[in-house]
């Protein structure tokens, strides 16, 4: 662990440009990274914050094929959505680049070529599925078949999403190509592999022995488990036409495997940002490299990418990889395929101006050591009880009272500071170091709680001094109290900024003070006596029950839609003979009258023109249809059903309806009007 680095290179996992980003991404990776970087900047450190879109790989090509567009069009669309979402949430990248850029292709190709020319790869020939009709080798996700473990007929070549089993394409029963639908054949293909087994002893020394004390337990444990199981060579190329072409002779139709290509995106993005000095941040021993990732990327950033950097020989290694666990949503795992997520761009539409509220809640409930759960009720409670009633309340009282009693000018200290004043300012002085040490050690949730503790100090101070009462008897003493309270508020401008940048800026405007250095945030004299502050404005406002109930309902609607989409039809009934079926007289009729049957909830009495007569049919559909709306509708009627008395009414037939998975009913009707009495053939 570097204690006094000259500079910092901080990366956040490249989001995959195959869809928008959600709260799980923000909580797990981008928010803690942004808090860390904003703090480092305030502390006067030299830091570059690097990210960009990961734009290669098979899922991109599959989405492009489904949508009838090019892979470039897919990544252009989602790159813009993701970039804009991050910007609106105040994630302060120094650059947000992309792996489809020319610079990235050059850097990734150069990286591969150096390892290739120094014989750091091994070549292996293997059998891989090939689609003869499409005339191409098939990536794992382009192959579907029956899972050997659970019988799911639509398992992918790398995983069965029904039972969760990891698979290889050759394990699938009756494999078929997603490109043509045909059964693929096995054909030989050559690829280059990074021999991770050759780096196993070095990785054991570097991680298992070298980072036992400073890496998070979940990161260290996963790495140790992988190393203990023994490492195997890993392919760095694949047969595909979307990606960085393999830059050696005889590799036509092959690209760099996305797992090899993507982390090099950090380097290429830095080169785009700093064309002349980028190497200082990646090759100088005075630079500290920190990767922020989710736990699904631990192996790539702690074992595979460091092995790549070690093989290359010119690059520094990550000092820390503070990966978070996963964030769940309302007790269920976030799932993009099931649309069980809170998408950042949708949140911004539903809660305009409240990006900081989500930042606060996600940090306060961050999955730093275990999976945590986001609920809309907790979101509301934290906003109302902590942001509004604590932080916002303290600032509002200090500013409003200053305007009310001292014409909006910071009053002078009169008669010296009393013990209670000195204690409040002494506590203020401790918070920059206290919060800073926690951020330096990647304990962002605890750091945020310390920030809230400072606002509690302010609120307690005002509650005990009661300046709104004191003004009646001692104006000078009231001025001293508000002077102290405003110094605490001024300290918050800097200390809030890593966590709540928009709110910190708003507070700075209110106090008419610029964000200062981190070390100076605890000073007792940030605001001089006589300094004129701006008008009071609410930093946060209350979120009402109806607002969060609407968000919960949106999720419930999503769950219901998923259940309907995945509903399994009931098994077929026993066969009937053709003669039995032929005896049913199915006709088209027109409803000429409809009314509820008295003293019942479910029954309607219908008069139907069958083309032969007008007859009465009693049907249990009153909870699904308005009687008046049925009049004039054409329906399908089983005409020769034996009459039956229902609630004293002779019913002469049956309507044909379909029942949805949610229990709702739909009339079976002809596609266009036909003559009543027409046979249903």
Describe this structure in words.
Its EC number is 6.1.1.10. This is Methionine--tRNA ligase. The chain contains 20 helices and 26 strands. By secondary structure, it is α+β, with helices and mostly antiparallel strands. The protein has four domains: 178 residues, 3-Layer(aba) Sandwich (Rossmann fold); 71 residues, Methionyl-trna Synthetase, domain 2, CATH 2.170.220; 144 residues, Isoleucyl-tRNA Synthetase, Domain 1 (Orthogonal Bundle); 102 residues, OB fold (Dihydrolipoamide Acetyltransferase, E2P) (Beta Barrel), CATH 2.40.50.140. The termini are far apart. β1, α1 and β2 form a beta-alpha-beta unit. Helices cover 42% and strands 17% of the residues. It is flat. It has a five-stranded parallel beta sheet with strand order 3-2-1-13-14, sandwiched between helices. A five-stranded antiparallel beta sheet has the order 20-19-18-21-24. A four-stranded antiparallel beta sheet has the order 5-4-9-10, with no helix packed on it. 41% of the residues are buried. The longest helix is centred in the middle third of the chain and has 31 residues.
Largest sheet: 5 strands, parallel
Number of helices: 20
**Mean pLDDT value:** 93
Radius of gyration (CA) equals 33 Å
Classified in CATH, the superfamily of the largest domain is HUPs
- What name is given to the CATH topology of the largest domain? Rossmann fold
Secondary structure class reads alpha+beta
Work out the oligomeric state of the chains in this entry. single chain
List the domain count as a whole number: 4
CATH architecture of the largest domain: 3-Layer(aba) Sandwich
CATH class of the largest domain: Alpha Beta
Q: How would you describe the shape?
A: flat
Number of strands: 26
Domain TRNA-binding: 580-681
Motif ('KMSKS' region): 333-337
Motif ('HIGH' region): 15-25
GO biological process, one term: methionyl-tRNA aminoacylation
